[in-house]
Design a protein that fits this description.
8 helices; 219 residues; mainly alpha
Length: 219
């Protein structure tokens, strides 16, 4: 699959990889995250246009930072909502179980806690799975539409996934494989982990852009 070698097809691949590794390292203190996210946004756009050399240059750091604001904000919102919504629903279910249990001989508190916790973990798994499927498409849509709100237009996002399921799932699968492979950078005592993580991000971003290029409903 071309996604795995797209980074190395560029004549300046080493420069792209070194800069990407540095900003991946800096993501640990948050600042690098904006540049990496902006790089991904531009790579998605370039791949969707079918450019022969889709890797963005690192010579516009201000623009990359600005392009990365939206994805980071989207990530925070999705990340915050994933546990919050299940916790709210589980709280309601637990309260209902407590109320029902209190009608019996005990106070129902233990039943409410157990039911609430079980509901929370189940819903957390479900919402996490749904978020994992939706998030890459939301990222793609926001990058291409150039609007932050596009990441939350769930009707359009689900429509895109449905009509382009094969290409989209291949892109997500490629990223999963690359993410697992990138963990082998730990074998090099963490020296190679940051280039490997950046490479997996390139795989994902190019794959999402390529899937968008092949979208039968694209304008």
């Amino acid at each position: 699959m071309r996604a795995f070698r797209i980074l190395f097809e560029d004549p300046d691949w080493l420069k792209h990889l070194l800069f990407g590794a540095v900003f991946t390292l800096l993501s640990g203190v948050l600042i690098g995250l904006f540049f990496i996210a902006g790089y991904g946004v531009r790579l998605v756009r370039n791949a969707q246009r079918g450019e022969a050399r889709p890797l963005p240059d690192w010579d516009d750091l201000g623009g990359l930072f600005q392009d990365g604001l939206g994805p980071v904000g989207m990530y925070l919102i999705y990340g915050f909502a994933t546990p919050l919504v299940p916790a709210t629903i589980a709280g309601v279910i637990g309260a209902a179980a407590w109320a029902i249990g209190s009608l019996g001989p005990s106070d129902g508190s233990e039943l409410g806690i157990v039911v609430g916790m079980l509901a929370f973990y189940f819903l957390l798994f479900v919402f996490g799975l749904v978020g994992f499927v939706i998030f890459p498409a939301a990222f793609t849509r926001m990058a291409l539409e150039r609007r932050f709100s596009a990441a939350f237009e769930f009707g359009e996002i689900l429509g895109y996934i449905k009509r382009n399921a094969g290409n989209y799932l291949l892109a997500v699968l490629a990223y999963l494989i690359a993410s697992v492979a990138s963990q082998f950078g730990l074998i090099l005592l963490c020296v190679g982990i940051f280039p490997a993580i950046f490479w997996s991000y390139v795989v994902m971003s190019w794959g999402l852009g390529e899937a968008a290029r092949l979208d039968p409903g694209r304008r």
